[in-house]
Amino acid sequence: MTDASLNPAAPKSLLTADARTRNRRAAEMRFRMIGLSAVLLGLVALVFLMVSILGNGVGAFRQTFVEIPVMLDPAALDKSGNRDVEQMKKVTTVGYGKLIEKALGAELVARNIDTQGLTSKDIMGLMSKEAPADLRNQVLANPDLLGQTITFNGFATSRVDGFFKGRVTMDSALRDSNISPEQLTVAQAMADAGLIEVKFNLSFLTAPDASELRPEAAGLGVAILGSAYMMLIVLALSLPIGVASSIYLEELAPKNKWTDMIEVNIANLAAVPAIVYGILALALFINFAGLPQSAPIVGGLVLTLMTLPTIIIATRAALKAVPPSIRDAALGVGASRMQAIFHHVLPLAMPGILTGTILGLARALGESAPLLLIGMVAFVKDYPAAPPEGLMQPATALPVQVYQWTQRSDPAFVERASGAIIVLLVFLLIMNAVAIILRRRFERRW
Amino acid sequence: MNDMRIVERTVSTDTAKMTARRAQVYYGDNHALKDVDVDILDKTVTAFIGPSGCGKSTFLRCLNRMNDTVASARVMGEIKLDGEDIYDKRVDPVVLRAKIGMVFQKPNPFPKSIYENVAYGPRIHGLARGKAELDAIVETSLKKAALWNEVKDRLDAPGTGLSGGQQQRLCIARAIATSPEVLLMDEPCSALDPIATAQVEELIDELRSQFSVVIVTHSMQQAARVSQRTAFFHLGHLVEYGETGQIFTNPKDPRTESYITGRIG
Ligand SMILES: Nc1ncnc2c1ncn2[C@@H]1O[C@H](COP(=O)(O)OP(=O)(O)OP(=O)(O)O)[C@@H](O)[C@H]1O
Ligand SMILES: [Mg+2]
User: Fold this and answer.
1) CA nearest B119 in A: which residue?
2) Domain with A51 in it
3) Taking ligand 2, which is a single-atom ion, which protein residues have CB atoms under 5 Å away?
4) Do residues A433 and A372 share a domain?
């Protein structure tokens, strides 16, 4: 050391900053700015994502409907005349289609709408192919409607729907074999007369998927149900198994080579790509155990496998965070290991465990890769039954439905895929909110 | 040393409640306790004194097998309670700990209500038949721990919300609620103010009529005030053990003398 450094420096004023202080302040300021810009960048990306998804997807929740009075002619729909539903089923959608076609023509005449020289078949082309089936279901559900004139609310085709949402224009219609500019002119006239309207469409959330040709009728009902079934299975299996194994590993198991190895392997499992779990499930549950393809039970099992490491890691961290003095206190008054765990440690670890579980579930809800491999990508039109039988019946899942819809050629499905993403995001938001609420509720100071 | 009031007390009994012979503790390779021979007498207060890190807590934790929870700890030698080896394979440490209560160095109440803290031990050991009896146990325990007056109106408040000294007295109440035969206290007064300390010391003196108390303390005055027997530990050895009066007025070992006169520590 030099003499100079030992000499007390001349007293410095607190009011003027020296070079060191200025440097330190500048460095701290730079760090702050970097952090702030990183956060801002993230926010901008998030806003962009939200805007693009909402912009594309909100339309899926609104749909163009054609509303016309239809006379349900008993002579055409119930030839036997005794209102027997089994007999009435003999009339196919073709019969109902004719009825709608007639009603549509009559309504246009009554409203004085210029049909631009289109045939009544072309006019009928404004309506979804789903409309006759819809009417048939209504009548079969309630045969007393026969003979009455009801106001029928049917889907317009996706092209007409696209026209009112701005996706389809007169120009694009010129090049489109599915729709002509004349048809759109009639549709516009019908809208002006109040026969066509864009309304909230609940069936987007409840209806099953529909074929390539009728995107307007496609809904998320089966996918939501399938996802819900799988989440039930994941919750029912992974929470108890995960918590039990964490308690064993963290509190009871001796610390040796074996438990170290298990620990490393669990950490590795958490990082295994999801698709690998799909291959495992295909081999194990479908080929070996013989469980049905496309069934929520298999999906639930594979997602359970995937979620378990996450839950175990979160639970062990939560258990580790409980101060050892609490365990000592319990043991000190003569509680057994088990009593100490269940009476004191577990309640304190609960917020962490629940948060980890819900985050694991949320990840499982959004997972699609393993489901593709076990056949959950199939086109499923029928709702699965209530559990437990329903667990073995084919279903789809929300993320897979998104994937499927983006694969289809009709641009109307892009809108529906974005709509499905919104639904998925809402579910994820709800789950994360529940995680936060639970954590707040269970959180205790010690 | 002038302010120390050493009261000559007669040791009430000469029957040994606990005996340790050649007790050794290793933490991994660290030989923390070496060849300790101690008789802890029934209905007597025994004080352990010695510089920090000399193994007082370690030995205390051997007496109720709390060292079992430390993975690296190995205990050897023989420790007996009423003539029975507590490290025998047939001994359930849980049953042992119900008989030998412990108050820890740092207050560690459960994050539950004050009432639940005290009632927990009696409840898991089935000591009370019905709510009324449990209430009575809680009340007498809190009264003995000199805490009742401060908390009687808020038994449902969390135990962790009390001040440090109150928490320690709550832990004492919790320990005596299970009516142990031996009470081990690891520096129970290190977080207490002089008034609470005096109350706890009074309590310890009272408890002596029912069971033996072992207290670790850094306060020579406290050891002299409350104990009848004193053991001085140094670097893992039991240097000297005898009647408190003798240890403080006429220590045999020069190390004891230097410690109590403040020269090593
Ligand atoms: N859990 C443990 N793991 C490893 N070594 C330990 C452990 N607990 C104590 N030791 C070691 O054992 C020796 C004795 O420690 P102990 O806690 O018994 O001291 P003490 O006399 O109670 O000290 P203090 O008065 O500071 O509380 C120390 O060297 C310490 O490092
Ligand atoms: Mg200690």
Assistant:
1) A333
2) 3-57
3) B 57
4) yes
Q: Are residues A133 and A277 in the same domain?
A: no
The yes/no answer to whether this complex scores an ipTM above 0.85 is yes
Please judge whether B66 and A327 are an interchain contact, meaning their C-beta atoms are less than 8 angstroms apart.
no
For A352, A439, A440, A446, B117, the CA distances from A443, given in Å and listed in that order, are: 9, 6, 5, 10, 18
Indicate yes or no: CB of A330 within 8 angstroms of CB of B111: no
Residues A254 and A267 in one domain: yes
Handedness of CA A46, A52, A58, A60 (dihedral sign): negative
Are A183 and A263 contained in the same domain? no
Report DSSP letters for B63-102, one per residue.
HTTGGGGSTTEEEEEEEEETTEETTSTT--HHHHHHHEEE
Q: How many domains does chain A have?
A: 3
- Which amino acid is it at B100? I
Task: Taking residues B119-145, report their average pLDDT.
Answer: 92
Tell me which residue has tokens 């309670």: B81
Shared-domain flag, residues A282 and A312: yes
C-alpha angle A319-A304-A369 in degrees, rounded to nearest 5: 125
Question: What is the layout of strands, in order, in the sheet containing B212-216?
Answer: B84-85, B73-81, B16-27, B30-41, B237-243, B229-234, B45-49, B212-216, B182-186, B100-103
CATH code for the domain in which residue A239 is found:
1.10.3720.10
pLDDT by residue (tens digit) across A9-29?
667 788 888 889 899 999 999
Q: List, for residues B169-213, the tens digit of each pLDDT value.
A: 899 999 999 999 999 999 988 878 888 888 889 888 888 888 899
Nearest CB partner across the interface for A333, out of B158, B160, B178? B178
Kindly state the average pLDDT of the residues A246-274.
Answer: 89
B120–A332 C-beta distance less than 8 A: no
d(CA B232, CA B38): 11
Looking at the structure, tell me whether residues A83 and A51 fall in a common domain.
no
**Per-residue pLDDT reduced to its tens digit, A201-244:** 888 988 888 888 888 888 899 999 999 999 999 999 999 999 99
* Whole-number Å distance between alpha carbons of A193 and A208: 31
Same domain, A171 and A247: no
Residue A192 sits in the same domain as residue A73: yes
Partners of B125 on chain A (C-beta within 8 Å) are 334
pLDDT, chain A, mean: 88
